[in-house]
From TrEMBL:
SUPFAM superfamilies: Periplasmic binding protein-like II. It holds the Pfam family SBP_bac_3. This is Ectoine/hydroxyectoine ABC transporter substrate-binding protein EhuB. GO terms for molecular function: ectoine binding.
Amino acid sequence: MAPSALKTSLRRRSKGMVAAVAVAALALTGCTSTDTDDDSSLLQTLQERGSVTVGFAGEAPYSFMENGELTGATVALHREIFGNLGIETVEGVNADFGALIPGLQANRFDVVSAGMSILPERCEQAAFSEPEFNYTTALMVTEGNPMNLTDMQSVADSGARLATMTGAIESDYATELGIESMQVATPQDGMDAVTSGRADVFALTGISLNWMKNNNPDAPVEVTQSFVAEINGVPQVGAGGTVFRTDDQELLDAYNEELAKITSDPEKYLSIVGEFGFTEEEMPDPELTTADLCAGVE
């Protein structure tokens, strides 16, 4: 999709997200691990501490645990960027995807590391970095794709039983299209729903589903070709970034300055995230900004 088309294809979505976030926040209230002194900024505090705590949801290849170590494309970006800011250690706190923004607001962690979609409703509750990834959606189905599913509209037309991850953009696509979806907490739960027969299809970002299939070669599933979801004829542009609290502007500005050095240099970008399956196709479009995405431009 051309850069000019990207901008004109944005629209407001995720109507159900505010309620989900509010419910999850109740469970997190009172949990604090990153409180800072009123007289110092979070950036200064993290530099003095030498570490940053990120919230993640275990979605490979963005941010996940492997052999007891926090890893993934967003984690790799964070180690590079925060390291350049004098913050050498990146630590993680695992949470369900739908609980990440409430956990950030409750000071359970300093930022969210999950490749989270930049959406107007989320921008009302938190601040996002400039885009770090562009991505598309795909479907995980049983081997042979017996229902011949190709995109979200085909799921709606077929009456297939759909699984989506709580808080993820695919859940909002389903709502917009009038599809009743089974909510799962993690990508693994989504794949399990398909392999057990509880769901016919699991929708998630293409790069996540392909990573799962490649790392579970014996699972009786396949992943469809990635696509740009369309709602009411409007392509839905997916772009994700790191999430900050709204009052941590100094940290956000410093982060964006370092991020721009990476996303403007394809060789540098791929040297950091390429090992996790990301290519130049996932590089953020320089004409698509967080301000655009937060505004929900039609």
